[in-house]
Structures are given as C-alpha cells and as structure tokens.
Amino acid sequence: MNETPAPRLLFLFDMDDVLVRYDWRVRMAALAEYTGHSFEEIRRRWWDRGDEARAEAGHFPDGDAYLAAFTEAMGCAVPEADWARIRGAAMTELPKRIEAVRIAADHGRVGLLTNNGPLAGRWIGRWAPSLPPLFGEHLDTTSNFGARKPEPAVFERALAHHGVPAERAFFADDMPVNVEAARSVGIHAVLVEEHTDLCRAVRAFVTAQARVTTA
Predict the structure, then answer these.
(1) pLDDT of res. 24
(2) d(CA 25, CA 3)
(3) What are the pLDDT digits (tens) for 114-142?
(4) Helices 63-74 and 80-88 sit at what angle, rounded to 10 degrees?
C-alpha cells in the first residue's frame, strides 16, 4: 500500500505506444547485431518461451536477476548499459500524449502501468525523461504488482496500492484486451489508437467525475 494520502482521482497510463512510440523491430535488429543471433533465434530463446511475460508478472525479484536470466538465455554477455541502450533506442516520446498526463496531474494522481519487468523499471526515467517530473515515484511496471495486463489482478492491486476505488480511476492503453480487463474491474478505460485525442479523454473523465461529485 502506498503510504501517501490517497488522491480523489487516479489516472493510470500505459507507456509503449501510448506515451512513447516503441518500435520493437528496431530493438530486435539491434539485439540481433549485438548477440549474433537471428531475430527468430532471439525470440525463441527469450520471448517465445515466456520469460519476458514472466518478468512482467514479477517472476524476477529485481533487475539484476532479470539481466542474469536474459544473459544466460542469449548465451553471451549483455551488460545492463547495452541492454538499456538497445531498448531505449527503440523509444520516442510522444509530446501530445504526455500533455494529457500533465492535464491529469492537475486533477489527481498519475501513475504508470506498463507491462515491463524490474530492469525496465530502473531505466524508464532515462528513456523518457519527460515522465519522472510528472509521475514522481509512480513510474510503475506491472512486475511491481506481481501480475501483468490483461490479468484483472494487476488493476486491482494497482487500485489498492493507490487507495482509490475503481469508479474514480482512469486508464489508457493501446491494447483492446487490456482496456477490457480494466473495465471488468470498474475502471474507466480508454483505448488509445493512432488518432486518439488523449487530452480530450482525460478532460471528459474529469468533467464526468465533477458531475458525480456535485450530484
């Protein structure tokens, strides 16, 4: 449980392809060049056998354990700095989407909720430097909650962590299955597509909540 006072409203945002553009092909190409493995072999050694999904669900206790397992799977040394450089090079901040976080922060607490493991959690602030001033200590990866989207448990645990009921929470994600999972526990969830006006969506939620308060 978060020890700071619970906010009236909570705004949770996914990261990849919501607040930043993430090109996994750039990452895979760089990993292939670094490790000497083909794209298919990299996928087979880590992603296809479920290790990344397990990391996102909290299987590895910390970033060091994650990196040790990743290095073993690749069969070659992958120092943390190189792992982070390769991942970060595939990411580009989306200023118009990040502006929605600024708007949300004026009306409640903002928190990240991204399917990522503990090592990514160490680096998000350096990959996307606009985020730490907005999110503060709430740059959470799903690994912090011991479950990954679209498991309803990850949303329930995030709500409990922030001390906010589902009806006062907003969530934005680019995956329909994640949006549906958030809605299944009562969160107001928005699907973010290429032309989604996230600022408008945040303002609409704030307006609706104000009506509820004054009703």
Answers:
(1) 96
(2) 40
(3) 999 999 999 999 999 999 999 999 999 99
(4) 90
User: In this structure, how many other beta carbons lie within 10 angstroms of the beta carbon of residue 50?
Assistant: 11
- The residues, ordered by sequence, that sit 6+ positions from 134 with a Cβ below 8 Å of its Cβ are 98, 101, 102, 105, 110
> If we measure between CA atoms, which residue out of 12, 188, 53, 144 comes closest to residue 180?
188
d(CA 79, CA 120): 14
Kindly give the parts of the chain with pLDDT less than 50: none
Strand 20-22 and strand 91-93: the pairing is antiparallel
Q: What is the pLDDT of residue 211?
A: 87
> Per residue, what are the HEC states of 74-125?
HCCCCCHHHHHHHHHCCEEECHHHHHHHHHHHCCCEEEEEECCCHHHHHHHH
Per-residue pLDDT tens for 86-96?
Answer: 999 999 999 99
Q: Which residue shows structure tokens 């645990």?
A: 157
